[in-house]
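Regression test case RT-17, inverse folding.

Input:
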């Protein structure tokens, strides 16, 4: 059987046994006119007054958008949103578009033009969030002794709007909604609390889990503290076409989108696999190995203990940020990672993502990584296998027999063993 998997901006072709079980997204028809769908969602939102009605009399607005690592169709979402605000007599100069960088680098120049379009880039105020710049945020409360600090541009706005993409998320259950604030526009100290070793180790901090998930519930609490007037979230199909628009109340509209994602992005299987072949999701998600952790977690969900994972990822920017790269280059096993980082006093940025990667490496017998953007030294240091000939590696692993799964969309499809499905609904 022939298989195509995304690797950066290219497609990798593979041959796998005919008996391979393919984990795919259920078909989700693209909207005929997504821009019109956004306009309709703004006018007829979920458990909220129409956006134009909410905007009347407000002196300013802040629209939070995702950064370059998320394939959010901002050029579809933003024009109707901006038109609606201006139709409500809000001055263009009073509107700020805030990029929810979380702890990522800022998006500037051609990246920004790619994200929002040149017309919006030239005519609206656009700011990047900087999580370690105290001038960028202020404290609004505390949770369990941790400071809750949120971007000033957002807090000072008369109308606060979140946008984003709803898809499975390995900590929050689903992305979108409250994640635009945390981690999107929160301070480093706030993110330390939400990304601690203890939080990430919680059994309900997992893909497609909302109820009982402390990451999700703390996110909602922070939304209530910071204030959210309106959200506009979308769901994409496997071809990254808009399949749904969900606007209105920050929790109820988000939940409605999550229900669609659950139907179209989860795959129930009868029993774990001996080998899982997966993709990092392609560009822009697999720009760094940091984001490839999502594919490894999805593979781990359906892999028997001691099985093998093959992951294909572009990683044209390498491992990721300085701190994340430093962890992977200094720790060679989950046991070593746990010994060093479970103490909150040793917390470093991006340790949560490294924690997830080492958990997957610990569960698997071996993780085989094919990536044009990574070096053999970096792959082997983290305890994985560096792959040069992908087809030869797949042939060798499948020749052992056993159950094989192929997940062409990688992190966009969450596999669940049937006996566990009820536990993560």
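Golden output:
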């Amino acid at each position: 059987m022939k298989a195509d998997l995304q690797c950066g901006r290219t497609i990798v072709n593979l041959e796998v046994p005919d008996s391979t079980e393919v984990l795919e997204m259920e078909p989700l028809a693209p909207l005929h006119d997504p821009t019109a769908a956004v306009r309709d969602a703004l006018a007829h939102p979920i458990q909220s007054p129409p956006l134009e009605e909410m905007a009347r009399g407000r002196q300013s607005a802040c629209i939070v958008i995702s950064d370059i690592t998320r394939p959010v169709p901002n050029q579809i979402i933003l024009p109707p949103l901006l038109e609606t605000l201006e139709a409500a007599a809000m001055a263009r100069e009073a509107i700020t578009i805030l990029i929810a960088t979380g702890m990522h680098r800022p998006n500037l120049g051609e990246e920004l033009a790619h994200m929002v379009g040149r017309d919006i880039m030239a005519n609206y105020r656009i700011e990047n969030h900087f999580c370690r710049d105290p001038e960028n945020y202020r404290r609004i409360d505390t949770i369990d002794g941790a400071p809750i600090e949120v971007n000033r541009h957002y807090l000072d706005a008369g109308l606060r709007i979140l946008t984003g993409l709803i898809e499975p998320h390995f900590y929050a259950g689903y992305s979108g909604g409250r994640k635009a604030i945390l981690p999107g526009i929160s301070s480093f100290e706030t993110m330390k609390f939400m990304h601690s070793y203890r939080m990430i180790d919680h059994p309900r901090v997992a893909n497609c889990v909302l109820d009982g998930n402390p990451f999700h519930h703390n996110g909602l609490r922070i939304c209530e503290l910071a204030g959210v007037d309106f959200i506009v979230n979308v769901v994409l199909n496997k071809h990254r076409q808009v399949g749904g628009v969900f606007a209105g109340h920050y929790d109820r509209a988000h939940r409605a989108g999550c229900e669609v994602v659950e139907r179209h992005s989860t795959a129930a299987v009868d029993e774990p696999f001996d080998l899982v072949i997966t993709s990092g999701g392609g560009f822009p998600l697999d720009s760094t190995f940091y984001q490839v952790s999502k594919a490894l977690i999805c593979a781990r969900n359906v892999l028997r203990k001691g099985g093998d994972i093959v992951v294909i990822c572009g990683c044209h920017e390498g491992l990721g940020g300085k701190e994340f790269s430093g962890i992977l280059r200094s720790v060679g096993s989950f046991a070593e990672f746990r010994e060093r980082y479970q103490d909150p006093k040793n917390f470093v940025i991006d340790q949560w993502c490294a924690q997830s990667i080492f958990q997957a490496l610990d569960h698997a017998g071996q993780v085989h990584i094919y990536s044009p953007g990574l070096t053999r030294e970096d792959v082997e240091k983290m305890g994985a296998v560096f792959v040069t000939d992908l087809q030869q590696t797949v042939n060798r692993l499948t020749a052992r027999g056993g159950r094989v799964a192929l997940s062409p969309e990688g992190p966009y499809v969450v596999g669940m063993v049937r006996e566990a499905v009820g536990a993560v609904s």
